[in-house]
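Example 9 (inverse folding). The structure is encoded as follows.
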């Protein structure tokens, strides 16, 4: 029996944000949260009772220990973390805004301990001793080391018998759509479960048409076993063989959108790992709504709350 249900490789850092109505250049206070796309996913899954491990690098400093403390609190095993005597964690700044201004994100991720982590330093036995490995395209452009490790994780995981999921998670501030397509397509080829937003399907992969058609195009392009495409306010669509499953989004009062996509991915994986993609889509839209109703990157919930919130959705919320 594998040690873990889900493992992942990704960066952990700090989010420094100011509320709507404040500007970064004049604020006297930042709200501090721990961030990391992959960590958000396994953090949610850990809170739902899954055994999860995280591979990364952190400095043995107050900021590094701040990140580690938050992830341990979520229940994530940190045995795969490489600790550095010196160095920095990445961070990003968020300036929340209301129309006519848009919320803006500024990255400060260069030369972090994570970006300098080499493939030879990875505990590969730890990473692949799992049922499933989850990876994202957000990590690939951070450094050549990171890109190599993601590619190796897919190859080694498949060889060991682990299933693989990949979330495209494109960020325009990090690289161009053309480069993202060039680098991500070989990684995505033949994976078990592909996550991609409708916007990324258009911008990165050039998909066109109605959501069903775009999801099919993604599946053909990547040869992924199954595809989950998020549609924003319209919910999420899943492709499983020749079957399409659509689950509308849940009604929510939005407090903080950041992290909702990771929460959705965690919910889908929670159902998918039990062989039920349809249930996973319900979990995903529920967790995304829960994430948007809370502040911070990582959704705080448990299995009991998730089951209750999912069960109160009307049966007609799923359209086949």
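The amino acid assigned to each position is listed next.
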């Amino acid at each position: 029996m594998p040690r873990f249900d889900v493992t992942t490789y990704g960066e952990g850092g700090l989010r420094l944000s100011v509320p709507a109505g404040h500007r970064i250049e004049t604020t006297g206070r930042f709200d501090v949260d721990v961030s990391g796309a992959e960590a958000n996913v396994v953090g949610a899954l850990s809170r739902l009772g899954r055994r999860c491990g995280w591979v990364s690098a952190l400095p043995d400093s107050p900021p590094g220990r701040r990140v580690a403390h938050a992830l341990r609190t979520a229940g994530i095993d940190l045995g795969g973390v490489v600790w550095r005597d010196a160095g920095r964690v990445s961070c990003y700044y968020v300036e929340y805004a209301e129309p006519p201004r848009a919320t803006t994100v500024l990255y400060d991720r260069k030369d972090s301990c994570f970006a300098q982590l080499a493939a030879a330093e990875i505990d590969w036995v730890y990473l692949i001793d799992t049922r499933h490995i989850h990876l994202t395209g957000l990590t690939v452009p951070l450094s050549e080391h990171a890109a190599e490790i993601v590619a190796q994780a897919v190859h080694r995981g498949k060889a060991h018998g682990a299933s693989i999921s990949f979330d495209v998670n494109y960020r325009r501030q990090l690289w161009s759509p053309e480069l993202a397509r060039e680098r991500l397509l070989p990684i995505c080829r033949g994976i078990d479960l592909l996550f991609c937003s409708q916007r990324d399907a258009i911008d990165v992969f050039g998909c066109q048409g109605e959501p069903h058609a775009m999801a099919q195009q993604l599946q053909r392009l990547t040869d992924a076993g199954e595809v989950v495409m998020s549609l924003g306010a319209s919910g999420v669509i899943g492709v499983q063989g020749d079957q399409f499953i659509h689950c509308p989004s849940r009604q929510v009062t939005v407090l903080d959108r950041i992290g909702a996509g990771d929460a959705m991915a965690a919910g889908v994986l929670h159902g998918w790992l039990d062989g039920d993609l349809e249930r996973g889509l319900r979990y995903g839209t529920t967790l995304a709504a829960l994430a948007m109703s809370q502040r911070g990157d990582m959704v705080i919930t448990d299995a009991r709350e998730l089951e209750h919130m999912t069960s109160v959705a009307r049966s007609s919320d799923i359209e086949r």
